[in-house]
């Protein structure tokens, strides 16, 4: 009897110890607001919005200590529309992220699944569109450089290094899962360095697609892009770099990105705000983005942020639209987890022979004029 009690007691101790070495966290963010736009398809618009700044999501994040500085990790993250409860990312259950892998205190982490590319991981945090200070509606035109995460990649193997005295680097490779190995695949790499108030980062992303198949059109396809894409193009190369510096309550930054498209057809309907998309006039196209941004903590609870982006487009055939985009935001924290915000966005497009209307990301419809203005009042809650 004594032996039985002792075994039961020891089993309980070991079970408790094993349980203490693993954890699962439920987390999320809900962003809801009301947006007014002066021109959406030729009409003024009042719209209840979800994810105007940060996409609404919930997720599970977990780890298990395997000993020797090694642990198993996973993340499952769902995106949804708070206004109607529907799934985001082409109706995927875990469309934002879904991966599992191993992380080492000495060598970094290797993960497999649906994941962000290296431009998003390393460069986007230096841009207001890739953060809580501007977000979705402040994206560079058509989110042409993917800093706002319009595209996530399936079948991805990712490596992320540990922090070497402020320096980190990583890369991804996303399989096509096809016998046509190079069709609908993607790869990327990036790095960042932090020292004191200085942050510097750079990244590169390349996608390959057979535009005759347009495999990225449907979420049922097995390739790296499926159901969410920005460009119909045989090849997309996006690269860029950025820097910001924090001094006292202020952070000022600059980000440059360039996207080059070859064997190009046009911009998807979802990203152009046009029912039939937006066609290019040649088989190549290019976007260059120059963003200056600033963030200022006026008080511990009240922050101000602003960004100006100049975008040079080249659609071929002498069509070279230039975009000027301004995003301004004020945010007030009601608590550590809940805040309210007021954001204004304006875009003007010029040098525009075909009179392409302005389009602020996420509004749903492009303007019939060269200008578009949107004002949003919203609330975010994190858990």
Explain what this protein looks like in three dimensions:
The protein has helices at 2-20, 118-123, 269-272; strands at 22-40, 43-50, 57-67, 70-79, 97-104, 108-115, 153-160, 167-174, 185-195, 198-208, 231-247, 250-267, 278-279, 284-297, 302-314, 322-333, 338-350, 371-382. The longest helix has 19 residues, at 2-20. With 383 residues, the chain is mainly beta. It contains three helices and 18 strands. The protein has a single domain (23-382), classed as Porin, CATH 2.40.160.10. A 16-stranded antiparallel beta barrel has the order 1-3-4-5-6-7-8-9-10-11-12-14-15-16-17-18.
List the helices and strands and how they pair.
Layout: H1 2-20, E1 22-40, E2 43-50, E3 57-67, E4 70-79, E5 97-104, E6 108-115, H2 118-123, E7 153-160, E8 167-174, E9 185-195, E10 198-208, E11 231-247, E12 250-267, H3 269-272, E13 278-279, E14 284-297, E15 302-314, E16 322-333, E17 338-350, E18 371-382
Antiparallel strand pairs: 1-2, 1-3, 1-18, 3-4, 4-5, 5-6, 6-7, 7-8, 8-9, 9-10, 10-11, 11-12, 12-13, 12-14, 14-15, 15-16, 16-17, 17-18
Order of secondary-structure elements: HEEEEEEHEEEEEEHEEEEEE
Q: Per DSSP, what share of the residues sits in E-state strands of 2 or more residues?
A: over 45%
Overall pLDDT confidence: 92
CATH overall fold name: Porin
Q: Overall 3D geometry?
A: globular
Structural class: mainly beta
Question: From the coordinates shown, what is the CATH architecture?
Answer: Beta Barrel
- How many beta-strand elements? 18
Straight-line distance between termini: 47 Å
Task: Please give the count of helices.
Answer: 3
The fourth-level CATH homologous superfamily is Porin
Helix content: under 10%
CATH class wording: Mainly Beta
Task: State Rg.
Answer: 22 Å
Strand order of the largest sheet: 1-3-4-5-6-7-8-9-10-11-12-14-15-16-17-18
Strand count, sense and barrel status of the largest sheet are: 16 strands, antiparallel, barrel
Indicate how many domains the architecture comprises: 1
Model regions low in confidence, pLDDT < 50 over at least 5 residues: 1-20
């Amino acid at each position: 009897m004594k032996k039985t009690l002792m075994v039961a007691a020891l089993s309980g101790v070991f079970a408790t110890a094993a349980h203490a070495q693993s954890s699962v966290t439920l987390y999320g963010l809900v962003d809801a607001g009301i947006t007014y736009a002066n021109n959406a398809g030729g009409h003024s618009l009042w719209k209840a919005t979800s994810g105007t700044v940060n996409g609404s999501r919930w997720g599970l994040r977990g780890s298990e200590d395997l000993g020797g500085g090694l642990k198993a990790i996973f993340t499952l993250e769902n995106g949804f529309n708070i206004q109607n409860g529907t799934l985001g990312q082409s109706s995927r259950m875990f469309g934002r992220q879904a991966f599992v892998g191993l992380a080492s205190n000495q060598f970094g982490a290797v993960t497999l699944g649906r994941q962000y590319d290296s431009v998003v991981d390393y460069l986007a945090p230096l841009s207001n569109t890739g953060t809580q200070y501007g977000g979705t509606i402040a994206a560079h035109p058509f989110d042409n450089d993917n800093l706002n995460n319009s595209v996530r990649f399936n079948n991805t193997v990712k490596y992320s290094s540990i922090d070497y005295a402020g320096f980190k680097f990583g890369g991804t490779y996303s399989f096509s899962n096809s016998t046509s190995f190079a069709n609908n695949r993607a790869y990327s790499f990036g790095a960042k360095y932090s020292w004191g108030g200085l942050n510097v980062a750079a990244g590169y992303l390349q996608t390959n697609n057979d535009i005759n198949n347009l495999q990225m059109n449907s979420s049922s396809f097995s390739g790296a892009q499926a159901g969410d894409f920005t460009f119909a193009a045989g090849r997309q190369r996006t690269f860029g770099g950025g820097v910001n510096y924090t001094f006292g309550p202020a952070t000022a930054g600059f980000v440059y990105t360039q996207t080059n498209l070859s064997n190009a057809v046009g911009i998807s309907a979802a990203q152009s705000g046009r029912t039939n998309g937006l066609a290019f006039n040649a088989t190549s196209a290019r976007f260059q983005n120059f963003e200056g941004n600033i963030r200022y903590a006026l008080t511990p609870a009240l922050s101000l942020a602003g960004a100006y982006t100049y975008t040079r487009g080249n659609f071929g055939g002498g069509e070279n639209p230039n975009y000027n985009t301004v995003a301004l935001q004020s945010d007030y924290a009601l608590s550590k987890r809940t805040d309210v915000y007021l954001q204004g966005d304006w875009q003007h497009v010029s040098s525009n022979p075909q009179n392409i209307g302005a389009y602020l990301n996420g509004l749903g419809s492009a303007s019939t004029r060269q200008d578009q203005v949107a004002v949003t009042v919203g609330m975010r809650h994190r858990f």
